[in-house]
Design brief:
CATH superfamily of the largest domain: Ribonuclease H-like superfamily/Ribonuclease H
Largest sheet: 5 strands, antiparallel
Number of domains: 4
Shape: globular
Strand order of the largest sheet: 3-7-6-5-4
Length: about 475
């Protein structure tokens, strides 16, 4: 809530609200109710407005696209909000669900930075409170980071009441290499497995903002439906369902936080040009990209090289063929997949089955510079495809000891080492002061961490088992 000053009184002011997809019939019911409560007609301002009503120092406007917007007003307006909520509740009914889960992403239209996918989970009983916080937030519009930060701060206050979220990030090199929608299936599958560890499907409603959901995720959602879960896959679902709207807001917050940090890197300044928003239609971004390529003839690792705008700047129109990243489940033993589905990850029992010689492998060869993963068995040497996606899905972490720190950093700088993972740096406490090459290597890793191409985490020997093994 905001505050408005009045003579001798400091009164709370209700934040603005938005309701979407209101039918003309429902809008008429709402209009009549507002008039009955004492609202007065106000003149419409443009052809996109159907009617305006003024009451309690606020204005209700119904638009031709089916949206009702209310400006901030007195606390009394909350009762009118409840009435409108009851009219449009056909979109927000939680049925018998005790908990709501929403999946949505942001960043697909940008030429640099990661795509952020988020799953949120919260009890149905606090959905109206969260709806009040999100208010008029529209993730399709550009806002300063502080706008998303303020909403996020309010949402996180409900952590003690059961609000939680998990975000995953698809990095540009993977966006360039793999079919994006199938990657999103994999990442959302991973998010759901983590969110559902302690919940029964019969108590859940899951809403997925439909991006072109594929068979992998649909099959998993079907198993949840058969167990009693209410599953909804719908385009523009954030306009109807509070759970996907909040997932969209959290994704937007995470991406804006990441993009906000990029211009601080002095290595990215070029002729005083700003990097802009990263959106393909942003004039500042286009100018920065043109200047960068003209000067360097290559791209920073956070730029999506497969996008048409980038390829146009390079002067190439060669069609790219992307890889389907999904075909990796057959190389993981069923015993481990069952453990993982129950929320248990233990690297000590993880292994890979070679598709050619069918050996159960605990070691894999990484071939440089092709970055191919090979079966180490003599007379086999089979190239195991999509293994980096498989390892990310089931493990997501790589332990880096001090003796290979410099080698890993140098390979990473040339994009010859697997990226997208959390790198657990296993070192002694004062390694940076002991060895200048280690210090340089660490700075290289920090650069990639800043670009969100890896996540850098320090651990000690005593923590390895605790971090690499997660059990209920």
């Amino acid at each position: 809530m905001n505050y408005v000053d009045k003579p001798g009184l400091r009164e709370k002011s209700m934040a603005g609200r938005t309701w979407k997809n209101i039918s003309p019939e429902d809008a008429e019911r709402i209009r009549k109710h507002l008039l009955k409560e004492g609202a007065i007609n106000a003149p419409v301002k443009n052809p996109f407005e159907k009617w305006r009503l003024k009451i309690y120092n606020c204005l209700f406007t119904y638009y031709t696209n089916g949206t009702i917007y209310r400006t901030p007003g007195k606390p009394k307006v909350e009762e009118l909000d409840k009435y409108i909520d009851s009219i449009v509740s056909k979109h927000n009914k939680t049925d018998k669900a005790k908990f709501l889960i929403g999946l949505d992403e942001t960043g697909k239209g940008e030429v640099f930075g990661n795509i952020i996918l988020t799953g949120v989970l919260f009890p149905a009983r606090i959905s109206r409170k969260l709806s009040t916080i999100t208010g008029t937030a529209d993730t399709k519009k550009k806002h300063a980071f502080r706008y998303w930060d303020s909403i996020m701060n309010e949402l996180q206050k409900f952590t003690c009441e059961g609000f939680s979220y998990i975000s995953e990030e698809i990095i540009p090199p993977w966006i360039d290499k793999y079919n994006l929608n199938r990657l999103m299936d994999i990442f959302y599958h991973k998010i759901l497995l983590r969110l559902l560890e302690k919940y029964e499907p019969k108590n859940l409603r899951i809403v997925v903002d439909d991006y072109g959901v594929g068979s992998r995720l649909k099959n998993y959602l079907n198993t949840l439906q058969q167990a009693g879960c209410n599953v909804i896959i719908e385009k523009r679902s954030e306009d109807k369902y509070i759970e996907t709207k909040i997932a969209s807001i959290v994704s937007k917050y995470s991406r804006e936080k990441h993009i906000k940090g990029l211009p601080q890197d002095k290595n990215l300044f070029i002729d005083g040009s700003s990097m802009g928003t990263g959106n393909v239609g942003n004039a500042e971004t286009k100018l920065w990209l043109e200047k960068w390529y003209r000067q360097h003839k290559n791209w920073p690792p956070f730029v999506r090289k497969s996008y048409k705008n980038i390829r146009k700047i390079e002067g190439t129109d060669k069609k790219l063929r992307k890889v389907n990243p999904e075909n990796f489940d057959t190389i993981v033993p069923d015993t481990y997949k069952k453990l993982y589905a129950k929320g248990k990850k233990d690297i000590r029992v993880f292994s890979i089955i070679c598709p050619k010689c069918h050996t159960d492998l605990k070691k894999i060869i990484l071939k440089i510079p092709s970055r191919e993963f090979l079966c180490p068995i003599k007379d086999c040497g089979y190239v195991i495809k999509n293994l980096e996606v498989c390892l990310y899905f089931y493990l997501g972490r790589i332990v880096i000891t001090q003796d290979i720190l410099t080698e890993v950093a140098n390979l990473l700088d040339k994009l010859l080492f697997p990226i997208g993972f959390e790198l657990l740096i296993h070192t002694n406490g004062n390694f940076l002061s002991e060895n200048s090459s280690d210090r340089k290597a660490y700075e290289l890793l920090r650069k990639f961490d800043n670009y969100k191409l890896i996540k850098l985490t320090h651990i000690r020997q005593s923590k390895i088992s605790e971090i690499c093994k997660k059990e209920d």
